[in-house]
Design a protein that fits this description.
The protein has 4 helices and 7 strands. By secondary structure, it is of the alpha+beta class. It has a single domain, classed as 3-Layer(aba) Sandwich (Aminopeptidase). It has a 7-stranded mixed β-sheet. The longest helix is centred in the first third of the chain and has 17 residues. The mean pLDDT is 94.
Length: 162
């Protein structure tokens, strides 16, 4: 599996993957995350800003994620409750990680890519997103507290430093 920069031409392949990821969330009991989100406009903004990436297996796009890095790439991470970040150094963040049922290992590939760029990664996930929380814990991420996303809803925040 390869990670490639997404292009606007990939949008018609990415959006069905987003829809399938949303369905997988519902099947695992996560009924409230990604309701009407992320929109095609948000994914296109990721792509146009150089933050959208696709996972490609056998010349087919099988996953999508947004990766940003540098000084405070996510303004929602400025305030954390019931804990603290592991450090205040520049970090990378993954958002909108989506995979369907066509391939396994997309989350691992996305995080391997992120860590190849910067050794300090923060991520947040919905409290009901147990598959993502299990992945993060299994892969050495530390629970750091709670942040709030743009719509005001809470997310569990994690960080890993290598």
């Amino acid at each position: 599996m390869q990670v490639k920069q997404a292009t606007p031409n990939d949008l018609n392949t990415i959006m069905p993957i987003i829809d399938e990821a949303r369905q997988i969330m519902r099947e695992s009991g996560n009924m409230t995350q990604w309701v009407g989100y992320p929109s095609q406009d948000i994914i296109l903004e990721d792509i146009n800003n150089g933050h959208g990436f696709v996972c490609v297996l056998d010349n087919e796009i099988v996953g999508y994620f947004c990766f940003m890095e540098g000084e405070d790439p996510d303004p929602n991470y400025k305030v954390i409750e019931d804990g603290s970040w592991l450090n205040d150094k520049p970090y990378g963040v993954i958002h909108r990680l989506a995979s369907g049922r066509k391939a396994k290992g997309i989350a691992q590939k996305a995080f391997d890519f992120a860590f190849s760029k910067i050794g300090n990664i923060r991520v947040d996930t919905h409290h009901d997103n147990l598959p993502m929380q299990n992945f993060l814990k299994k892969n050495g991420f530390t629970y750091c507290g709670m942040i709030y996303v743009s719509d005001g809803t809470p997310r569990d925040a994690f960080q890993k430093i290598i």
